[in-house]
Amino acid sequence: MSRARAEGLDRLPAAGGEPGADLERSEREAALHRAIAELPEDRRIVVVLRDIEGLTYDEIAAALSLELNTVRSRLHRARLDLKEKLERFLP
Amino acid sequence: MNCADNRLLHSALLDGELAPDERAQVEAHLATCAECTAELAALARTLSMIHALPAARAPQGFVDRVLEAARPLPWHRRLGRRLFQPLRVKLPLEAAAIMLVALGAVYVFQNTPELQQAARQEPPVSAPVPVSPPATPAPPAVPAVRGTPAPSPSAPAEAHRTAEEDQAGKKKEREAALSDAPAKAEAPPSRPVTPPAPRLEARPEAKLQSKVDARKTPVAPEGRSDARQAPPAATNLMKDKAPSQSPAAPPAPPAAAAPPADVAPEAREKSGARPQSEVSRPIDRVGPSESSGDLSARARQVPARLFVAPDASGRLSVADRAAADRALADLGARLGVTQAFRRDEPDGALIEWIVPREVYAEFVRGLAGIGRWTADREPASPPARVRLQVRVGS
């Protein structure tokens, strides 16, 4: 319930903003959410920990009991996946 | 460093997670390779887009669930939470359920006689214990046994006294006699000292008393019927009962008194087994209708005549009472049926016939021809002379 409501509220147009730009932004965010959700589990978790939660590589490696290089390569592959899926939204 | 190796490190480069030497190598390659530079720019835009995402909010209760999974609560607190947790919902529900079960238990208890009996079984076990010892010893039986050979001096006096009192006093005396009766029955074997002659007398008396008790009808015909079997006891009994009978029921018509005496031996066999409620019902019917007259005299007159319940009874609804009376008289004359008793009341007449068994069915058919006949009681196997009591009303 809460997550759905949070998304819904976030997609409400901000006061004074351009309606077209707001629509595009919310569309982009929805696509990004979907793209992250579609990632394989091992890649998704490193992306979330790094790009959303803001952990460092070392912290991620410690949390997931992984080698630093493994974290690095998984994160890079995950980002390439996202870039591919979000290509049309990129400027 | 080729392009593929270089691009593998782009993410780390953007995150600032490269060691200084790696970073120098990557930047050196980027300076020479336009494709890798464009690739890095695209990745940077993707990253900026991801970073622009508002921080995700965990769903409500997520932290609690994570903590619970990490450190489970002790079982009793989990059980308590599961039983009562939404306190406002579960507590009223549970109270209602308890009430429902309690009401159900009470309902089942009230509708199951076996259960009530099982619950009541405790007191009777303890109650008879103090009562029984005084009942078994011989002393109470002694006056009774001795009294029977010579009851004439005391018994008539007692009977006279009851004749002046009302029925309540009589009832009390009957109960006293009743309590003596079992003692008398037990007395002969327990006291071999008593002479044989009184013992013989005591026995029928006791038997009679217990019969009287069973029917609660101290009627004269009873005594007469026993007179055939045990003359000495019966004479005593006649002395005992006759005084109470003669002053008690002077207004009773002779026709009413005589026929029941003949019928009694047969009627007794049947009515002895009848429940008390049926026997006493005629009194209830007669009692309120009589507004005047000596109360005590009436009280004794009624049981003397009616305590022996009729063999058959019913109600006859007629349109015209006078015409019905004539038709009934004709019917009786035709079939040779004698009218034993009649009482006229404002709302009808109570008539009793002595009907010979051979014409009983025809007589009832005749009744049905006169008016609307409703049989209250039918004899299973009619005696030689059927006492038929009919309430004629409109």
Report on this model:
The complex is a heterodimer of chains A (91) and B (394). Chain A is mostly helical. Chain A has a single domain (2-89), classed as Winged helix-like DNA-binding domain superfamily/Winged helix DNA-binding domain (Arc Repressor Mutant, subunit A), CATH 1.10.10. Chain A has helices spanning 2-10, 19-38, 41-52, 57-64, 68-85. The mean pLDDT of chain A is 81. Chain B is α+β, with helices and mostly antiparallel strands. Among the domains of chain B are: 3-51, no CATH class; 138-254 and 297-306, no CATH class; 312-393, Alpha-Beta Plaits (2-Layer Sandwich). Chain B has 21 helices and five strands. Chain B has helices at residues 3-8, 10-15, 20-32, 34-52, 62-70, 75-84, 87-111, 113-120, 122-126, 128-135, 141-147, 154-164, 167-190, 196-215, 220-229, 231-245, 254-271, 276-286, 295-306, 321-335, 357-370; strands at residues 312-317, 338-345, 348-356, 372-377, 385-393. Chain B has a five-stranded mixed β-sheet, sandwiched between helices. In chain B, a hairpin with a 2-residue loop joins strand 2 and strand 3 (348-356). Chain B is rod-shaped. Chain A binds chain B through residues 1-3, 6, 10, 28-29, 32-33, 36, 47, 50-52, 56-57, 72-73, 75-76, 79-80, 82-83, 86, 89-91, and chain B through 8-12, 15, 17, 42-43, 45-47, 49-51, 53-57, 59-60.
Would you kindly provide a brief summary of this structure?
Chain A is mainly alpha-helical and about 90 residues long.
Give the secondary structure arrangement, pairings included:
The complex is a heterodimer of chains A (91) and B (394).
Chain A: H1 2-10, H2 19-38, H3 41-52, H4 57-64, H5 68-85
Helix pairs in contact in A: 3-5, 4-5
Chain B: H1 3-8, H2 10-15, H3 20-32, H4 34-52, H5 62-70, H6 75-84, H7 87-111, H8 113-120, H9 122-126, H10 128-135, H11 141-147, H12 154-164, H13 167-190, H14 196-215, H15 220-229, H16 231-245, H17 254-271, H18 276-286, H19 295-306, E1 312-317, H20 321-335, E2 338-345, E3 348-356, H21 357-370, E4 372-377, E5 385-393
Helix pairs in contact in B: 3-4, 11-13, 12-16, 13-14, 14-16, 15-16, 15-17, 20-21
